[in-house]
Amino acid sequence: MLNQKLKLQGVLTVITAMLLVSCSSDTYKNQGPEALNRVADSLRNSGDHEMASRLYRQVLEADPTNQTARRNLGDSLREARQSEAAIQYFREELRKDPSSIQALEELGKAYIAANNGDEALRVYKKLLEQKPTDPWVMNGMGICMDMLAKHEEAQSYYQKALAILPNNLNILSNRGLSLALGGQTKEAISLLAAYADTPQATPNLRHNLAVAYALDGQQDKANSYFSPDISKKEVASNLKTYF
User: Fold this and answer.
1) How do residues 166-195 score in pLDDT, each as one tens digit?
2) With contact defined as beta carbons under 8 Å apart, do 36 and 62 qualify?
3) How confident is the model at residue 152 (pLDDT cuts 50, 70, 90)?
4) 157 within 8 A of 175, measured Cβ to Cβ
5) Which of 9, 30, 88, 143 is deepest in the core (most CB within 10 A)?
């Protein structure tokens, strides 16, 4: 009897999952923007970025001034690896409202996600003109410069950003990777290793430290920092990016 109940529960779980997967954004079309936004947030938090992005679009159709939904839409499209869709969407947003800083920021992030350093740099230069003291714009400029193999210039932007946010691990992590890619592997290791084993360390920071160790020829050390957060298949793929 117990086994039958467990089997029945398993079947019901599978059916429920299939129904959830088969749902489309039409299911929520009669809901108001606030309710839609809550559902989209829930889907995004559960990892269903594709469905979340559809609902955030509906939120913005009903409420074009909702900047949180716009930012979350950009995040969801990037998480769903739909960077080209993000680019098209935010370019269209800028055509409608060329003064939208938020849409410009999201477009810059989308170009970075699409690995288009030239276009990303063009966008971030515009952002820098409008927000010259914003550390996140400086951080974005650094990422663009690294993508274009201009590592010294990248590091200068990270340093400017860190002068404003000296303890921000995301920016520190980017600077460490930039140092490693620019051949300053010892400096990169020294910078990143100081934070890698702290509770605040992000997977990205440990990944960048692993890259620094790999570029320094310390493969065992590299593997020890790759392994907690990234599969062996991803390790090989990531290393190909940097060699």
Assistant:
1) 999 999 999 999 999 999 999 999 999 999
2) yes
3) very high
4) no
5) 143
Q: What are the tokens at 225?
A: 């920092």
Q: What are the distances in angstroms from CA 163 to CA 4, 139, 159, 201?
A: 63, 12, 6, 20
52-60+67-130 placed in CATH 1.25.40.10: yes
DSSP codes joined into one string, the chain:
-HHHHHHHHHHHHHHHHHHHHH--GGGGTTS-HHHHHHHHHHHHHHT-HHHHHHHHHHHHHH-TT-HHHHHHHHHHHHHTT-HHHHHHHHHHHHHH-TT-HHHHHHHHHHHHHTT-HHHHHHHHHHHHHH-TT-HHHHHHHHHHHHHTT-HHHHHHHHHHHHHHSTT-HHHHHHHHHHHHHTT-HHHHHHHHHHHHTSTT--HHHHHHHHHHHHHTT-HHHHHHHHTTTS-HHHHHHHHHHH-
